[in-house]
UniProtKB/TrEMBL annotation:
The keyword Transmembrane does not apply. Belongs to the avidin/streptavidin family. Keywords: Biotin, Disulfide bond, Glycoprotein, Secreted, Signal. It comes from the Bacteria. Homotetramer. The keyword Secreted applies. Pfam families: Avidin. Forms a strong non-covalent specific complex with biotin. InterPro entries: Avidin (IPR005469), Avidin-like_sf (IPR036896), Avidin/str (IPR005468), Avidin/Streptavidin-rel (IPR051764). This is Streptavidin. Its main location: secreted.
Length: 151
């Protein structure tokens, strides 16, 4: 098991993770969608198993705040790393939560899924996912720092 390194989702977002032997994950996330600016810090955990054929569970969080922008939101991913003979993948479900008033708190969280691989996706493949609706935009972070997610 080695989740450390570079990962890309279907839309071309880039994640770089470093792991420690105690289950810690740190790294950076650069989103390919929305109005994000530059890399954002990520932090998470992983848990390995000794059972053959089972994946490694992991989770990480990105607060969409850095020295260039503040989207007032946080995304957390939970999923599983699988390595099928060199075909490495991370399948993850994400929750994006943005700030909201108490009246609008019910609509402040959006749910979606990502598949991460070691390969950078072709630009036309990322556009196809959006066009066919197989992924929802903004996919992994707010598309606008002032707007609430829509349903």
């Amino acid at each position: 098991m080695n989740v450390a390194g570079d990962w890309y989702n279907e839309l071309g977002s880039h994640m770089r993770m470093t792991t420690d032997p105690l289950g810690g994950i740190i790294g950076t996330y650069v989103s390919a969608t929305g109005h994000s600016a530059g890399p954002y810090a990520l932090v998470g955990r992983y848990e390995t198993t000794t059972r053959p054929g089972y994946g490694t569970v992991l989770g990480w969080t990105v607060a969409w705040h850095n020295d260039r922008s503040d989207a007032e939101s946080v995304t957390s991913w939970n999923g599983m790393y699988l390595d099928d003979g060199g075909d490495e993948r991370i399948y993850a479900t994400w929750l994006l939560t943005t700030v909201a008033t108490e009246t609008n708190a019910w609509e402040c969280t959006t749910v979606g899924q990502d598949t991460f691989t070691r390969q950078v996706p072709e630009l036309d493949q990322a556009a196809l996912h959006i066009r066919l609706g197989t992924l929802s935009e903004p996919a992994d972070h707010p598309a606008d720092t002032t707007a609430m997610p829509t349903r």
